[in-house]
Amino acid sequence: MFWVFLEVVAALAIAIGIVWWTMPRKPKAGPPAAKEDREEEPRP
To answer: How far is residue 1 from each of residues 5, 7, 8, 9, 42, measured CA to CA in Å?
Structure first.
């Protein structure tokens, strides 16, 4: 019975780790709105 609980806990830990690893991260601090500025410039 102990092994069953140990395997359940291990499976939950792996599942939580996968979800945490694949969650989108916040963008790094950089020039604010640099991408938006490029989109607003008129194109020749």
So the answer is: 7, 10, 11, 13, 68
